[in-house]
Amino acid sequence: MATMDDNDATTMRAVVLSGPGPVENLELTRRPRPEPAPGWVRVRVEAAGLNRSELHTRLGLAEGVTFPRVPGIEATGTVDLDPDGILEPGRQVVAMMGGMGRTYDGGYAEYTVVPRAQLVPFRSDLPWETLGAVPETLQTAYGSLTTGLDLRPGQALLIRGGTSALGFAATALAKEIGATVLATTRGADRLAVLKEHGVDHPLVDDGRVAAQVRALLPQGVDAALELVGTPTLPDTLRAVRVHGTVCFTGMLSNQWTVPDFYPIGYLPSGVRLTAYSGDAADLPAEVLQRFLDTMAAGGLSLGPVHVYPLEQVRAAHRDLEEGNRVGKLVLRTQPAPDPVSDPVSDPASASAR
């Protein structure tokens, strides 16, 4: 049997979640590199974005997860091995959803194997840290604005939870569509960040956002994207005009059910409520490529990116849980000579190697 030392080409570094609980349940270890079955592809992971879904998994709030498990519902990297010979080695791909990090191992590792249907190819010279922030965030923002809201040029959009990674992405896409964007943050010190990233009307979320919206737009906004969860949903609904639409997509509050839901009492007359939860197939390759090209040309930003090496995965999860960072958190799964931000030190995580 091969020994799992740092120079063993048959093994890899991976973060394993032993079970629901605190960040100490995330352990960086060495494992055999996974072998893909027919219909599956092994990907050399360069970067993996962190998502609320993985926080829910760690906190025991996600259903259908088996342990121990390598978390991560997305990954960005290159094809390492396709046993069917369909995708050539070295091809740049993103992978997302479809059970990643829940029913099979996900992106918190140097290599992962995924069904070929969960891969979206692309070509880009952007840094891996930047690319790693894109797939799931872009897919969810794109699907929410198109399928969930059918947003049109000239409309006004409210984003509840604007300083989240998804909030920044939705702002960028909405501005490209030609919408006016209102977005909320709980901290007044973050209003300038929203403005810098294209928000027309940054708002402090004081729990009464509908009143602020109607002071600007008396009839209400045409569309609203709910990223906080059910605690703010009633107020978000009240900010929308008759025949306008609210799309429920995010759960930053970790609350996503409405107790004793009575539709007539809950929904304002004539306001529509939809939801969005997508998959890799909902992000067409041409859409991903177009937005990456636009980003490379400096015409699009999906917000701030904060990068952590695998050794600091516990620090990353603390920041994710406590909301310490504005924007997207990304694990750099392969060594990066020039990190784009200063990760938070986490000696406990480093010792888990």
From TrEMBL:
Keyword NADP applies: yes
Keyword entries, A-Z: NADP, Oxidoreductase
Domain Enoyl reductase (ER), first and last residues per copy: 21-331
Pfam families noted in UniProt: ADH_N (PF08240), ADH_zinc_N_2 (PF13602)
Matches recorded under InterPro entries: ADH-like_N, ER, GroES-like_sf, NAD(P)-bd_dom_sf
Location of the region described as Disordered in the Swiss-Prot/TrEMBL record: 332-353
Origin superkingdom: Bacteria
Biased amino acid composition, Low complexity: 339-353
GO molecular function: NADPH binding; oxidoreductase activity, acting on NAD(P)H
Protein name per UniProt: NADPH:quinone reductase
